[in-house]
Amino acid sequence: MTTWPDHLPVRSVRMARHTNQLEAIITFYRDIIGLPEIGGFRGHDGYDGVMLGLPGEDYYLEFTAHPGGPSVAPPSRDNLLVFYIDDQDAIAAIVERLRQHGYSPVEPENPYWSKGGVTFEDPEGWHIVFMNMRERQRILDAEAADAST
Hints:
By secondary structure, this protein is of the alpha/beta class. It has two domains: 11-69, 2,3-Dihydroxybiphenyl 1,2-Dioxygenase, domain 1; 74-149, Roll (2,3-Dihydroxybiphenyl 1,2-Dioxygenase, domain 1), CATH 3.10.180. Helix content is 27%, strand content 29%. It has helices spanning 22-33, 88-100, 133-147, and strands at 13-18, 37-44, 47-53, 59-65, 80-84, 117-121, 127-131. The strands form two sheets. The chain has a four-stranded mixed sheet with strand order 1-4-3-2, with helices on one face. A three-stranded mixed sheet has the order 5-7-6. Strand 2 and strand 3 (47-53) form a beta hairpin. The longest helix has 15 residues, at 133-147. The termini are far apart. The relative contact order is 0.16.
C-alpha cells in the first residue's frame, strides 16, 4: 500500500510522548541518533517540547515535558520504536555513536528483534531497535541451511 485508505485520509502522523527528562531525550534522539529537530516550544500552556522529524517530516516524534506534571511510568520492554535501515554500515555507525555516549545494546524482550536488529534503551528505558531486514533474512537462511545439514 502506497497511500492511505480512502476512509482514513491521513496527512501526517505524530507520535507524542511525555517525558520527565526532556533534555536527555533531546540529546539521545537528536544529537546521538541524529533525527533532525523540526520544531519545538517552551512554556506553551505550561509545556515544553521538541519535534524530531523522520523522512519527509510527515512522520515525526514529539516529546513533551510539563514541570510538576505526572511522573512517567516505566515502559514495558516490548514498547518499541523501530527504525528499519537497509544499510548495515549505517547501523554499525549508529551503534558506535551510541557506545561512544555510554549506551550499550540490550536484549530485546521478543527474540524476533535480535536477528538482524540491535536494541538500545533510551534515557527512560524505552527500547529503540535498528533493524536490517536483509540481515535478518541472511541469518534465518543460514540457520535453515545449518539445520538441514
